[in-house]
Design a protein that fits this description.
There is one protein chain. The chain is mainly α. It has helices at 3-24, 28-51, 60-66, 71-80, 83-86, 90-93, 103-124. It has one domain: Four Helix Bundle (Hemerythrin (Met), subunit A), CATH 1.20.120.330. The protein contains seven helices and no strands. Helix 1 (3-24) runs antiparallel to helix 2 and helix 2 (28-51) runs parallel beside helix 7.
């Protein structure tokens, strides 16, 4: 396995762990952003391993399609993708982004990220 793949994979796992910690301290907007980031980095790890090239995009659906993610997980990517912008920028969220997020929404995004990352893990065959 390529070192690049491992680097992206390890960061994906770290971001997912940081998302969980932020849920625990009620920083739900930060948690949601980290869920998006963890998902993106996991998909990029798989993309690099399969395609032998970097993926210069934040488009989770496009990344998912590039690695042939199952259709049942595409909705997770559709939900997580916009969080890259909405969770951080007041002009994208029509107000302070942190006000948009509840524990329930953060837990849902965390679950969606875990499902995608679990699939990537099975494809990579690593921990």
């Amino acid at each position: 396995m390529r070192q690049e793949t491992l680097n992206w994979w390890e960061q994906a796992k770290a971001d997912l762990g940081a998302a969980r910690k932020n849920i625990e301290v009620k920083e739900y907007g930060v948690a949601v952003f980290l869920c998006q980031q963890a998902t993106e980095k996991a998909l990029k790890a798989l993309h690099i391993e399969l395609k032998r090239e970097e993926a210069f995009t934040h488009d989770l659906v496009g990344l998912g399609i590039s690695v042939k993610i199952p259709a049942k997980l595409l909705d997770n990517l559709r939900d997580l993708g916009p969080e890259y912008v909405v969770s951080r920028y007041p002009d994208a969220s029509y107000g302070a982004p942190y006000k948009l997020y509840t524990k329930e929404k953060a837990e849902m995004r965390h679950k969606q990220a875990r499902e995608v990352i679990g699939w990537v893990k099975s494809r990579l065959g690593i921990e």
